[in-house]
Records
---
Amino acid sequence: MTLLLYDDLSTWRSDLKKTAISTVPVSYSLVPPLSVPVQECAAWIKHAAAELIKGSFFLRFGVDEQGRTQNFAHPARCETVISFFYTGPYRIARRMPEIFRTELPLSCLALVAAVFNCVLDGLAKNEHGKSYPNFSMKDYGPIYCRMLELLKYILEDAYHGPRLAAAMNLKGVDEARHDHLQILLD
């Protein structure tokens, strides 16, 4: 399903990229601190984005309580997934509830990781954030396929596999986003 959409619908890819563009810079702290002079901001962003790509740090989110790497666990991933697949204009999850009701398909997580790579590539190459690479099957298909391989490899791991599976489990996503809303039944 994802491959079909990924390959054929350029507006779909473009909108996913726009969603990622709105999330990635702030979520990955790619906004230069005030101590960086204005004339050096572009170079600072370029360097920071290149560092995230170089070590694939954008795929990780620190370490867990056991001191082990949290792969594909960055909160930006979840924010982008919910914004695009569940609440955005496409609401693909509503069109295919049997697929999206209980968990995020692995292919969708790989797609989000690939689009993050695309956005970071744009910042690393153009630093000003005004132009980004084309998020096409030709350019990012190999990265998407590699993301799928990495995800499958993680799922096979005795420690990291269950953690990734739990992160992809979407039971309670809606409730978690609105847990501040309560009623009192006296």
---
Amino acid sequence: MEFLCQLHERALRELPRCYKIWHNYLKLRESWVADLCVTDPACDVVEACYARAVCMLGKMPRIWEEYIEHLTRRLKITATRHVIYEALRSLPITQHYRVWALAMKMIRELNVPVRTGGELFRSYLMLEPAHAETYVAYLEGEEQWDEAARLLMKLVNDPDFVSMEGKSNHQLWLELCDMVTTHGPSIKSVDVDAVVRSAIGKFSDQTGRLWNSLADYYVQLGNFGKARDVYEEALESISTVRDFSLVFEAYQKFLENLVTVYSEMEEENEEGEDTAGSTADLLVEVLAKLIDRRLDLQSQVKLRQNPNKVSEWISRAKLFKDDPLTVIKTFAEGVKTVDPYQADGKLSRLWIEFANYYINTGKDIANARAVYEKAVKV
């Protein structure tokens, strides 16, 4: 073996740029250390030979590939990164893909520090921006949620971006919303509230789920008051019964959990009994009011979905049968809102029910007559 190495060294002194001699020599050296520990000094000799080879054959991609593979086997991450950058500077850009393939393999197979992996990926994306999703997946695997969210937000706002995984912009938006709301405390550089609200405005088919995700985000931050505000805002804005059911049930469960937590605090901590007890009592009251409001809120949702539905206005008025003033306001709002040309049902029925309410409850003939007089002018 020693004789063969000396023979190759003599040949290289005569022909220092001969690819075949260098290739055979490096393979010989590699075979010599194949069964040795990667920390053996003999491996350093092979590494030095590779360094000499690339100085002479800097435009030969195969030599660079074998050099990088040798360093990767030795688990020398920093040295491998430096050689990768040297190869990129030496080789024409048309051959860079060969180097990046090995760089990505190193990131996948070795325990590469996040800082090093991120630096390599960012450089790679300058050449192949279409592979941004691969970087997002890497960041997710390393639990770098803030940078992953920032990159994903950039992708969803790029009209020219085409997903290599076949994902639509809709799917990427939902993926972004799930990420920022699930890992809210880790997100610092993205406005989570603005992102989710933007998605709510864009995708009506996911409104209920997105409102719940936004509320969960504030729950993770411990901002229970803001979470309640989000649930209330959702109930006042959603326009489908399905979304209403999702939000209402989540809101109810949220309040029930809070009641349980504060009740347990009251039992365990006597010093905080007054504060915890009063908070628990307040939450019980809020929960009871929410349950009482369910039919009212559901009726509002149906009317937001179709404000011209006559039967729903009549049903809504019946909800407040114990509150005459609210019934009258509901009928008045109904006859004012329903468009005669787009009415879903007979508009005359709504006017008749309005007039009959005055007659049946208070024998108020004057107001009933006034209602009929307005009706015939519609």
---
Amino acid sequence: MLMISNFNLGRRQLRTRLFEVQSKPAKKQPTKSTQKLNTSYKKTRMSFSASSSEDMDIDIPWFDNTESELFLRSVPKVELHVHFDGSFSPKELWDHLQRNPGLIQCIPIEQKLPWETNPNALPFKLRELVSSCKTDLDYTRLCTCRRRYRKTRHAEESKKALQKKTGTLEDMLLCFQFFLPLVHNNFDLLENLAFDFVKRQKEQNVIYTEVRYSPHLLANDPHKAHQAITKGLRRGCIELSTVGEVCIVNQILCGIDFQPEWSADVIDMAHKLRQDFPCAVVGVDIAAGESHFVPDSPFHDAHLDMCRKAGELGIPVTLHAGETPDSEQNVGAAIRHYGAKRIGHGYRISMQDDVIELAKSKNIHFENCPTSSVVSTMLHDKCIFKDGTRTKN
């Protein structure tokens, strides 16, 4: 199945394409509700207008038109770049923590951030910051990179990161440290969060989603994490899909840049689960950084092997590339060496005409995420894409 979506948002044109995937169900005997959802999946062969890849409640300077926002919410949309663990409802997590106050012990007292390269950097006081929250809004401010929620927290170490109106990718990743320990190995909560994710997609009229996450990051047993998430996604798709209003969600499994030892298992899981419709795995990705693109990086070989094996197995690859300021060479590497069919972000390609031509020649589609990328200063006004070519103001 191939769906192409176009949506003009001011001067920014978002273009997305779904992975070409087979829509036949798994070999096991499906239930009636599963048959219904698979039938809906097979019949969905049309073009839809695409939204940005984040929450449509956008609060960036060039998006202040209420009429436009209402229109975006109302039209059917396809969303191809959305992180499951970046889409949790902070209020639901806060309520869960209030019902289970002992879970505060799951949050480390202090922790050195996984991506921190400065050997003299002090550990971050995570539990103190969470304990200081008095309301769900306090916790939302802590867990959310969106500018409307940024506010100084109590601990001195957090002020620089959390006060800024804009930040870096690392500042955004910092938000995850305040809630991932709460969901880790909590399979009932993961299932409920997956159901809630589908519900919110439905409310925003996103009729097809490819949601990505690292199962290894969410549990000691990644297979159980996937099972819980899939159960919640399927329950949401089945219960919320109505006649004429389809809600379909498939999955992309992620390797993690600084955890190369997980990549071999990621591709094995993707291969086994690629026909497990509904909510099957339709591709793989590498998230949380781009260090693996550097040939002499300790992260390089395992991630490259995963992507090359994906190519041999016919599993589509989408890669985060060209998102950060020092990543100009990564989009070309993702296409040439890793076999990526889609690129997440890819903004730095605007500086390289040869890579632009390469992407055009191979019909590479870019998953642009204006909300997160403007907030993290990864996307600038002068970096504008139109029809796959560079334009200037």
